[in-house]
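cache lookup: miss for this entity combination. No prior model stored, computing from scratch. Input as submitted by user K.M.:
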Amino acid sequence: MNRYLLLAAVLPATMAGAMEPLSDAELSDVQGAGLGFVLDQVLLDGSGAQIVINDITDGQGRNVPISVKNLYLGAAGSNKGTNLSPVTIGSLDHPFELELAKGEELRTLRDDGQWVQTTPNNITVLSFKFPERLVAGGNPCIDGYAAAGSNCSTGSSGRADLGVRFDFQVAAGRTEMLALDFHQLVMDGSYLRLWGDPGQNGNGELVGEARINLFAKTLEVMSCAQVNCNTAGETAAQRGARTLYITNGYANIALGYGKSQPLRLRSSADGQFVLELQNPTASGTTAAQRQALASDFYANAPRTNLVFENLTVGGTRSSPTAIPTGGYNFGRNEISGLSFNYLKVTSYDLR
Amino acid sequence: MRQSFRFAKHALALVCAVALNGPVQARMVELEDGELSDITGQAFINLTTDNNAGINYTRVNFGVNVDTQLNIKKLQLGQYNRAGEAAGSSDILINNFALGTVGPNDTINPFKITNPFLELAYDGNRVVGVRIGFGEAKGVLSGDIQSLTGNIPVHIKGTGDAIYNKSNFLQQSALFLAGVYRSSIVEADATLVNSGGVSDPVRGTMSGIKNGDGLNCTSGCAGGWTDALLGAFASSNCSILGIQTCFNLSQFQSLPVGNTSDMSNMQNAAKGFFISLQTQDVAWRDMDSNAFITALQGAFLNLPKYRDANGNLVSPINIDFNQAFNGIPRQDTCLGTATAGC
Amino acid sequence: MTCAKAAVVLLSLLPALTLAEMQALDDSTLSEMSGQGGVYLSGEFSINKNGGVLWETPTTNNPAQWTANQRSCALAGATSPESCGMRVAVRSGANAGWYVLDNLKGIFSFEGLTLDTRTLTSASGEREVLALGLPNEIRFKGGNFSFGVASQGGWKNKALSAANGGDPSYQQTNIFSAKIDGSIRMQGSVLVFPTN
């Protein structure tokens, strides 16, 4: 039912496509449980638009606007957005997908390559996912770097360049700019799943599971404190001196494990938000039950990993994907296997 | 065209009215004077700036309270070749890192954090450093520390008993003559050192009394000449009177951050805990003392002192001599039967 | 989210299309037209360009000086008041607070949104898909929205007492708000098809 509503929302009021009736044989083949999307030859150039993010204040309560400019999305090799060409993300066999599925049908890829069920049984889950990673075969998630995995469905033509620039007006007369540029970005295997849960006090609430995978061959963060980031007469070395380079970096951020630790994000009755990951053994009453819950959680819940194979500040690259030389090379940085036994984040008013 | 707009506007307004579920507004009544205005839409993020000695700082503060119990299999920052350090070593490498502990019956003793922030240090228009810090932090930090770069003050305080137990007869006589008895309270400050007793804040693997520092007898020692005699027994090459004074960091498997005896509130929390990356030595503001603390280039971990009920600065890691010699065992950080590595 | 609420949120996002005056085509003209599948759309719609129906725009930006049905949605510290956009509130659970999409307003126009069907071949055979061609350009003027959490679904004036139509216990925390201006150039299509 909801799927048809979504389809109706996508269609304009009048549709005049060339439609032909499906034969009975064809009708029985379509079992649509969801909608697939493919971004075909897309290109996004936001250099003519400005998004200002407000409601972030300074110590005196004055608004500090953050301008988001130069948002772009295109095929890899755009030279930080100067030379955009279109990119196709997703394919007929591995599309973006918005679906309603049963909890027992959904699967998640574990770090060791096994597909496990993480959502509870007997619930209906609204799931939005990026092109999936594969059970077998697949392309390297980061070109030329095996440690990020080789089971991505996105091939070399589907890798994107994405960039954005943030301008922070931190004080009168001082604007700091940070320009982010991703090269060969892949987000396979990311998803957001939502469903209803009786809740901790019997009050029904919306809970979920989320996974954000970011694989990038390079990420450059350039800082500048001038109106335009290209200072006239600047050498490549001077420009490189204010750039932070990450080469072969990936992040697998996992929030929530449906069966025993769903992600709860709610607004408390006093207007603050609360993000919670409960103790997965909370529902066990005996030691044996808790042990079983703990073992299941440690074995199957996806973990968060953040790996930067090379982090260098300053210096220049000889090619768009080489490791820079001439700056401070922080080498390899890694946070791996992060798992929360408990997390509760509550906001409060800073003023 | 106009009509369709108006219709759309009304339709959307109807939709808007339907979507709202709050009670209907009351009728207009006279305003009362003297009502203070309050800005609705308070935010939980704010941005503050700072500067010092030519470096500009921009800090993003998050108004959140975090209670957490987490495990990280490997926390590694700054694995690169550094002059004077072993190849393949890292600025910070901690395996089986955990914040908070698990109590009996799988209850959670969370690590509490208030007001985390992210700060950037600029020299002109170059970013020279970035740090993630906690305005206040309190709880147990566990891990197998392989190497550490930073400022981790350790205070050793205990009775002479443990020292006597580790000493042979000659050493015990020397201690007795110096006026240090089994019942005396002796204290010392320890920092990151190498195995030769030289202060080594970069990729340190040991914490101990650095060369030239000695023990201070704070009570129960004989007479005023104790200090002078004790001073003669300064630590050298990781030993005083042949008693070992440097300890492998890896034997300290659970460390208290702030005063963890009362976890019901944030009293006596450690302020200014941070991890930073910088391309040169950068002075970061210490949240507690408001002074600046210099972080060395590379990756840096700062575990600051905290103020106790009397306002005195106390080291975050307070151990007695028993723990110094034997280490601190790891507390349970995993649910179920496992205690580490989950 | 229940169906009704989901429908409301989705319907509120539908564009109101510009409809030119229509004239009937006679049979001979009709027969000359060769049919080709597809639709080409351009449109403009504005939400709460001059404010909405619930609140009138006051003369100052000081909540304590507003009457019971006035609200200004200008930024903190702004000197002149601003009219308010649309507000959508969703309760996150029984007895919990509300997620709020507040002050949604602005003028949004697009040109060149096309709709077509295409046949594509993949490893599993031929498929008919719906191809939504992205508009060449999307223009925003004064587009604005805030996302936050609140203790109640409807907005209440915290600076007025309950007798005056306000509610001092009302709390809204804006997680972030954004203002969009300018044009975004786009290319490409989104292909939509059912999946098993």
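stored under new cache key. The radius of gyration of chain C is 23 Å.
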